[in-house]
Amino acid sequence: MKRKRRKKNVLPGFGLTMGITTMYLSIIVLIPLSMVFIESSKLGWQGFIEVVTSDRVLHAYKISFLTAFSAALINAVFGLMIAWVLVRYSFPGKRLIDGLIDLPFALPTAVAGIALTTLYAEDGWIGQFFTLLNIKVAFTPLGITVALVFIGLPFVVRIIQPVLENIEKEVEEAASSLGATKKQIFTKVIFPELLPSLLTGFSLAFARGIGEYGSVIFIAGNMPMNTEIAPLMIMTKLEQFDYAGATAIAAVMLVVSFLCLIIINLLQKWSRKHEMQGE
Amino acid sequence: MKRKVLFKSTAFILSTLLLLSGCGEENGNGTVEILNVSYDPTRELYQEFNEAFAKYWKEEQGQEVKIHQSHGGSGSQARSVIDGLEADVVTLALAYDIDAIGNQDLLNSDWIERLDDNSAPYTSTIVFLVRKDNPKGIKDWDDLTKKDISVVTSNPKTSGGARWNYLAAWGYGLEKFDNDEEKTKEFVQSIYKNVEVLDSGARGSTTTFVEKGLGDVLISWENEAFLSLKEFGEDEFEIIAPSTSILAEPSVAVVDSVVDERGTEEVAEAYLNYLYTVEGQEIAAKNYFRPRNVDVVAKYKDQFPEIKLFTIDEVFGSWKEAHETHFKDGGVFDSFYE
Amino acid sequence: MATDLVKNEGKHIHKPTAVKKETNWTKRVLITVMFLYLSIFLLVPLVYIFVKAFEQGSGVYFAAITNSDALDAIKLTLLVTLITVPLNTVFGIAAAWLITRFQFKGKQLLLSLIELPFAVSPVIAGLVLVLFFGPRGVMGPLFSELGIKILFSTPGIVIATMFVTLPFVARELIPVMQAQGKAEEEAAISLGASGWQMFVRVTLPNIKWGLLYGMILCNARAIGEFGAVSVISGRIRGMTNTMPLHVEILYNEYQFSAAFAVASLMSLLAILTLTIKAWIEWRAEKQQTA
User: Fold this and answer.
1) pLDDT above 80 for B41
2) pTM of the shown model
3) Could you tell me the residue range of the domain that residue C198 belongs to?
4) Where is the ABC transmembrane type-1 domain (chain A) (predicted)?
């Protein structure tokens, strides 16, 4: 199988689509993005390491990664649930709820940030309930997480939804008639099918969370060594007209996000193969 | 075959780009258009000033002038100009930002001497905005260091206005402690210890204090403080003038490389000079900026509280030095949070 | 997997009624939890925006969205979306066709690269475009020689929006086309159809719903993009202000109600496109059952 030359593909358009895809991607995304590395290389290796490992920057990475990770995790759990409810159950207002999911895409991030900050402030509509529990949301890492949950939700739900719709009911029914319990059907039949898309959703939400700026900046409070996020560090560098320093921090974020995507895509490929072998 | 495909897709991309470039705007004939790139708190000022200038220019030269405005954080606006935003004039929060444009050879480095008063036709200072009746009894900079006071200001590393705030506090500290740098540092640090939220821009801090009701005192541009009173009612807030503060000089300059290319030098220069006329100064004063013109100063004497003001050059040498010592990465401000 | 199920067969006696009851109970809990979750993260913020927008009465609301600066911003945003969505659609179809129909080296890499714009911070996206098309960049001098303005004018805003929304159509189509398989298309070709005929007659009907879905998401994101566009637009009033930038300007002018009015209009736009989507889906379902 491995050594065999690939089957002759009769479908047309390989050259054309390859051309369009790579050209378009290169001009709009890749070549501009390479500027990050070109510009930051002006610092030299020593300078680069110095910038990206300074205390403030390391702390900002930590905050960004931790909050993005928790937000993506929360979204993975609840996003799966929401997708499940939207696909499997019918109830009044379902279409409206379904439409609402995409709101975070369409709303400018600044508006989301302003609205969330006001709502989650100590005496805000939602914040007051947290105040009763003695929890501060706005201007803490928790607040950043709230904003990132808002931003990342559509990714998880929208990626799981079509896959869930595609899982054939017959498979479940077959399992059920074989005497499997609900729990078994879920853990043994449905969940493995969903896992790749859940992972993709999680990683996209995570990667998006690391880079989010517009909404977080309002709710974060931006206190050094406490609630400063990585994109803010880029902005502070830029404010000092230090393009090289800014792109150095950007380069690290970019590489991490990209690795994240690659790993997830490989995992998916692997799980698809694994699945096929199992059959 | 392959080459043909490559050609086709290249043609597709190129025609796309051409299509895009077709969307650029064209100038109309007869009227001259200039772009003023400014910072956040001057929106109201230039709205009024632009109308007045257009009228003046029409009377003097018989030519219509349309002035476009762009507002944003002072530093990011300067960056846009460096990156090619074709501003005929820049009216920014601090000389440092215009120097940065000069460093890229977009304007002459002697720009600050080209107009009177350090190229700052209007000035402002840093004052405190407190809640009505001043419940915490805040009178001067010392009160901001007290334990139970919550201070609102923005991040000096991302906001031009916040740098004035910081330097004002520092200048007061130096005076109080007889130029003892260490004690001054402790003093300013204890103010920043009372800061809960560092917004990225001056306007952000104002909304945090005014709209979200956070904090006991907002350190603010004087003109912003007056504007907040006007917008939100005098029954909610009060302005407290500290004993000593900094003379904030927002600078203006013509961007030489742009006006040379667009042939707008004359109108751009006239525009900035008009800021120094009695009419221009009145508009500045009406928008709560301190005028320079003696007559206008006298006319609006009651509007502005009397504060002992020092300039940045007197206390810090220059903007460049102030920046290097205090706001650079690893500078004094960063050391507060280590 | 199957053996596990068989093993358990003896222990559990299948009781349909019990299962049904449990389902109802789980269903109720799940729906309630979902409502709560969506309420605190989506619904309340949405309500808040509308409450704020109408705080000073409907007069202020309609004045805010019919003011000439607002109309310019709306026009620009619509223009940008009108250019961005079709281009990204062409790209998305090409990329999905390439990835699902052919085997080649570096496919996973290409797929990750296509997804990359999702993961790039808007701040970085704006920054690199400025560096690339700016006067000190590679393309800047070339374009200014040709007299073409990219940065701080409409083309720059379009490119920034294209950058941010590039993956949507492709990401939506890839799973759909993967599930579809290529048998039908191969049959069409071997029956003598041209590439274009195959695409219009076979592929397009199969992917049309996924395609529309991707376009709608792309559209929603294109309307709302703020970060990258704010870096590249220059914020010139009435010329390069998009709706999100206009919202920020109004907010910074202390016109809170007006700011939220424009924001609410944007959420309405989003909801409108999503209603179209719901309608399309509903028709698709009807078509399937018919």
Assistant:
1) yes
2) 0.85
3) 59-289
4) 61-264
